[in-house]
Amino acid sequence: MTTAATAAATAATTDGGARFGSGRLATLFRSRRLLIGLGIVLFFVLLGAVGPLFIGNANAFSNTQLAAPSASHWLGTTQIGQDVFSQLVVSTRTSLEIGAAAGLLATVVSVVIGIFGGYLGGWADEFLSLISNVVLVIPALPLIIVISAYVKGSSILPTIAIIAFTSWAASARVLRAQTLSIRERDYVLASRVSGERAWRIVLVEILPNVLPIIISQFIFGVIFAILTQAGLAFLGLEDPSILTWGNMLYFAQNDQALSSGAWWWFVPPGLCIAVLGAGLAMINFGLDEVLNPRLRTVRTKKSDARKSGAKKSDARKSDARKAAGLTDGGTGDTSPTSTTSETGDTAEAQR
After folding, report:
1. What is the domain range of residue 239?
2. pLDDT tens, 3-57?
3. How far apart are CA 276 and CA 264, in angstroms?
């Protein structure tokens, strides 16, 4: 009997989950913020992935130094004749690689420490929580600057490791708190009693419930990594031979691009950072609307209210048209043209 009840409950949960998933998917495509954000991010991904294949050497010199945008140089040139558009395309790929890798690494560390520590409890949770608290209270920016000043290399790996090492603690605390709440729920306790293994409980029962938080933390991790790398490069703490948006700003600042009026040198990389950050934030807000039950309920209520208001407005307009039609039929034609013709006929009869 218990097995049959469990099977029936599982089937009902599967059907409900399928309907809920289809509803989420429909809401996903109705979110304007999410669609706009996905479009922005997809544009930069395609630019960084395909763009470098169609341009030449971004570090090549030319005789046109500090030239304004033209047909031959779409975004002008630098002070030593390098094409700004070519550098921007190559920098897009490198900046996206740093952001995605650092955000992914920080998210993985926060998931392992936050979820497993919160589920296991005991001395393991105390030890992992202590590490999170120590990393969390250390000021991130000064620590990043100090480490970057001593750890330099000819690749982006040191930068990825430094940013990921200093950005996982806050996410781990959020995931730990959520895990502590979820592990006391009935379905998790039932899995424990039935003899399920710990790793299966974490992956099947707990992880899907914290997936929206993980996605949100990853998106903000990408934004933080891109902004942090740009800040480090602008301060001169990154390898100048690697083209990134931050290094472009660094060279523009060193060569007095602002004072010389060469806006095409520093505006494009700064604008790319701002637009990509806005696109990622819009994706996060759009996913929050889809995955957060409270926001989804508010959105549904507002949509129902708008539909109800539109129906009432249409009903009032229909009643007004019917009333106007009855008035015309009962009183006859009272237009100015008919009144004028009647007045003219009366005048001729009097004459």
Report:
1. 31-63+72-291
2. 444 444 444 444 444 444 555 566 666 778 889 999 999 999 999 999 999 988 8
3. 18
